[in-house]
Design goal:
The chain is mostly beta strands. It is built from no helices and eleven strands.
């Protein structure tokens, strides 16, 4: 029943900006950590950014200073603001969330379907 749906991907020129959104729906008790991952053709999926329930953040070195992760707990949504985009940022971006379905259970990871980000030179 739990679903994560990403949006906001698209085609932009180098130096441009995009904002990705991920909305969590379903019967949920709470959401712990949330994050963004990406996978480029021929490469492993890598962590881009993560944000905890206490709003602590961590970023991959390649995006630090350019990307900002944030969350709106009232909307069960996590965002990724991407500025100064480079061609090497081209990838499918996936949303991830650690979700507790009830007060009696621990959190488990859920994934979105992904959204394509393409940065042209």
């Amino acid at each position: 029943q739990v679903q994560l749906v990403e949006s906001g991907g698209g085609l932009v020129q180098a130096g441009g900006s995009l904002r990705l959104s991920c909305v969590v729906s379903g019967s949920i008790y709470s959401i712990n950590n949330m994050g963004w991952y990406r996978q480029a053709p021929g490469k492993q999926r890598e962590l881009v950014a993560v944000i905890t329930s206490g709003d602590n953040t961590n970023y991959a070195a390649s995006v630090k200073g350019r990307f900002t992760i944030s969350r709106d707990n009232a909307k069960n949504t996590v965002y990724l603001q991407m500025n100064s985009l480079k061609p090497e940022d081209t990838a499918v971006y996936f949303c991830n969330a650690e979700i507790r379905l009830s007060y009696r259970t621990i959190g488990y990871n859920y994934w979105g379907q992904g959204t394509q980000v393409t940065v042209s030179s």
